[in-house]
Amino acid sequence: MKLKHSIQLAFLIIAMVSCKQKQENTIVSEDNQTETTAIDTTQTYINPLDIDYTYMVYNSARNQSYRSGADPAVIEFKGEYYMFVTRSFGYWHSKDLVNWTFIKPQQWFFEGSNAPTAFNYKDSLVYFAGDPAGYGSILYTDDPKKGLWTPTASISNNIQDSELFIDDDGKSYLYWGSSNVHPIRVKMLNKDDRFLEIGVRKELINLDEEKHGWERFGENNFHPTLKEGYMEGASMTKHNGKYYLQYAAPGTQFNVYADGVYVGDSPLGPFTYMKNNPMSFKPGGFTNGAGHGITVKQTNGQYWHFATMALASNAQWERRLCMFPTYFDEDGLMYSNTSYGDYPRYGANHPTKAGQHNGWMLLSYKGNVTVSSSLQQIMKFTSNDDEVEVKEIPTETNAEGQINSKVLTDENPKTFWVAEANDDKQWITIELLNEGTIHAIQLNYHDHDSGIYTRVEGLKHQFTIETSEDGKNWKTVVDRSKTDIDAPNAYLVLDEPVKAKYVRYNNIKVPGNNFAMSEVRVFGLGLGETPSKVSNFKINREKDRRDISFSWDKVEGAQGYNIRWGIAPDKLYQSWQVYDTNTHFMRCLDRDIPYYFTIEAYNENGISEQTETIYVE
Length: 617
Hints:
mainly beta; 11-stranded antiparallel β-sheet; 5-stranded antiparallel β-sheet
């Protein structure tokens, strides 16, 4: 037995080192038949998801050119997956929930779908709705991969931000609502008669900002004048006979955009607020937000929550997509793992840790960056009313006269650098603060006056990436010089890990008039020590019990800290990742719920031990 365990441990270590290592995994099907499949244990992904996001059409009259992906509806159909996204002029297909290919359908809404809904009915038909005008036919197909859809003959009203749900008994329901006043509603439809409305129509749930801090409108749940958040993006998951009605709040442009849950025994309710809300929440780190999503069940039984992340630089509707593993605990509470949610995560085919942070840390934070040229360096933030705040960052040079660009390693997607051209003379060089072993790189391009206002085929990002230990001798580790891949948030896992202190991006050609980048993120493991355990962690729940403040002693060598909390010591489902501070303030608690808190420090070498859990009334 000891020998067997030693062999398994050795095999796991080898699999984690080699990017091509595979192992056999036994899967038990519903009829208790077993099959052995090859599992790539090192397949990883990162948020925001690496797909070819579509340029938006609906702000073209204002000359706002930017990509966006939001409001995902993801379904499993005949063992494969389809993802429908707002205003994308089509949808994506995947066999593994990691690699996605765009499908251009033969019939579709002229301006793309808006806040779409899709439902797989017993692997026979896929139903879809999402006309941007808020009304229209429900489409259906038995071959979504082919892209040929048929509309129903009926016209359905009020299908904006909708969710189509067909229960096991064939009864059909449409949930909808997007308002800071009106609630989420439901109406019954007749699936067998053109989805005509029948039976019950009723109001279900509404926001209660006085009790639920995370539902308050604004960045960090604060706005100087507006107090009512938006309730929108309903979706329904049935699990163990319970109905989990999910909804988004308080606004898609904010870092605190999240999904909450009400639970009921019937698709029509009544529904009870889930005490560990929000279910999907990612307010800190590099890319924020995890709202207006949908939960899909993988063929192996693992649940995943796909949701919307806020970028909100060119416009408040500039967004990206994320994917988090989702679970139901022994008390029937639904929750997602969003901790270190924009760091590399195990892919969906990992047998035991699918969707969890895989241990690669950020090596590039505050690295010294030089660039080939600089048209401008900007912080561009879109406010609540879609007014854009623009702050130009002065150009600086180093002692050798090279142009610096601190915005490319500041972990802020709203800051960006624009080169003077879009050609093969443009480059970015990062000197890491400390040498490390590089496993992966994420490139986050920025849309600067791109002049593209719809989905355009044939776009591509062509470049090479080199690494060096001394800044003189370089090795090419990524070559996309002749690629046809369109990847505005490219995630690049190296074939083999490489030890380096310098990383150089060499541009060839990317979409748009100017080469522009918001962040280059380098992941792997440093060669030093993980931070020490945080000490003197103090918590003060404010007079307004939705608010809470924290302080702690700085830890030497730490990049930042991760605060975790929840409704029980074994239910610390929420987290907030911060950089370069030893204080924090949150407005996202539920007023009448006591909580438990802990904190950990992290740097490029790893994550510290957590502090003892603290109970707060």
